[in-house]
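user: can you give me the structure for this one chain? tokens are fine.
assistant: on it. calling the predictor now.
[tool input]
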Amino acid sequence: QIFSDESSPRIPPPPTTPRTTRAMATATMTTATTTPRAMAPRRGTAALGAARSAARERAQAHRVAAARRSSSRVVARATRQAQPDARDVAELALQNGACAIKPKYSPEVVRERATRGPGEVAKTAARCAKIVFNAARFAAGLALDEVSQNERVVSRSEQLRVQLAELGPSFVKAGQVLANRPDIVRSDYMEELCKLQDDVPAFDNAQAFKIMEDELGRPIDEVFSTISPSPIAAASLGQVYRATLRSTGEEVAIKVQRPGIEPIIYRDLLLFRTLAWFINGYSIKQLGCNAQLIVDEFGEKLLEELDYVQEGRNLQDFYDNFKNDPIVKIPKYYKELSGSKILTMEWIDGIRCTDPTGIVAAGIDVEEFIKVGVVSGLRQLLEFGLFHGDPHPGNIFAMRDGRIAYVDFGNVAQLTQTNKEVLVDAVVHAVNEDYDGMAGDFIRLGFLAPGTDVRPIVPALENIWQDARTASLANFNFRTVTSSFNKLVFQYPIRIPERFSLVIRSLLTQEGICMTLNPDFKFLEVAYPYVAKRLLTDRDVSLRERLMQVLFKQNKFQWRRLENLIGLARESGGDFDLTETAADGAGLLLTDSKLRQQLILAATEDDRLQVDEISRLLILLQKEVKLEKLINNAVSDGPNLARKLALSWSSKVLSD
């Protein structure tokens, strides 16, 4: 393994973005959001960068107090000299890497929709009675097992799954969420609840076609030359038909929402939140989390999946992120043929990702397809920060040209720049065996409440990571690590934020798919090369800082780590060019006297010149650093480098 037998002192974490309460969410910011609905504006990585750029321009306008004004609210806000209002605070947080929350979901809205008039109140009461009856049946079964001292876990977990399916979409979704919340549900029940991801009975085709015509505003045969007479697939919130566009001959998939489910969902959310209010004291004391907050997170996700307009935006964001990508296929979004109840996208003619026989028959290299899947998932998480939250086998396909295709973008999540940086910090702390730092990352990521005493947790984290580190690659898998973490969750006041439960779910699901295709699949053999390549070649300032943290141990340069990183990065395939990295390193070496001293000490460690280490490194770099390009970079960056040297020299003179 790359970082075996290495350790280093604790690395100070970067400043955190202030956290706010849900009551302030409409006026301030949170360190992360769960989906694109909760963000404004957002268009993947590019849009977030554009938003920050615009924020910097407004801040500059504020500093120079420019007289120029326009009707734009953005410019007006930037030039005001009065005390900042909530929108200014939100703008400041946006610059720090957070995203604004749109107040579409709120407990008040849920309560108003579920109790709107005597009729809705009566329906909500009837719904409550039905839920209570089913809950009583399940509780009676548990009580019977307790009396007979015969815990029938298999039958009871199956009973729970069946009853949730009978209660409708909200409970199916709740079961799916609980299937990925080890901090709430025991593992044997989680396995049974995972079956709720399978297809559910479809609703009437005549109703579906009527919804299509109402949304399109014209007869179906005017838009589609052919359409499947029955759904190709059905899920808790909708079902999918296959059709051909009359105008272009393109094949499309039409997703139609189940009729009448929105009022039911609002009633269920009101009842969920009422129950959460009753058990909140227990959940805070025993689980260290607010039960009402969990319901609110679930409600936000559920309403977002119900919003096909937002899902269309999600789809477009993914399409933009992976446009012309050689290994990932995202279907085209037909906005003009979509609406609040239907979503039309390009038909994906692929092979189910868990069908190794079909994949091989199509002439696709299974090992290469596994690699493509892992890398695409890591890119979503670490590069774009926008990732598919539900990558189960029904949503992932192998294209005949070897690409991986994703469908169903109702359940996606986004990590802010701050979240991504903290995740990288957590990796660095794990590599350096800095378990105090890892515990601090748990607080910054929202797993632990601010002010929590992390001292009892540090030894447990050390045990989990040491077990993972000492395991061979053949034995390492996320499910084993997650199982160990599950025990930690019940021992300490840890709550898994919804966005990170989606990350865990996504990683576990993708690992399971890969192991279905190849039982000997080793995740780290694919993930390590990608991470090493990105760490070495990405010019992002924060990643450069983390690279330096990895390469130095107690102020000593680690030759072996750098050699391992370069070797692994080569295994990732594709272009691997370290010229810009070498140029950046040379510039840093010229301007940072401390770094120069550290490298001189490293080259002469143990009172001898480290000829072997330097020779091996030069041989490794020989093919990856292009001398001509390096010289051109040095010439073009000359003025900037001279400026840095002057600043470094003047700072040294002034400090002396």
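assistant: here you go. Confidence is low (pLDDT under 50) at residues 1-103. The two ends are 44 Å apart (CA to CA).
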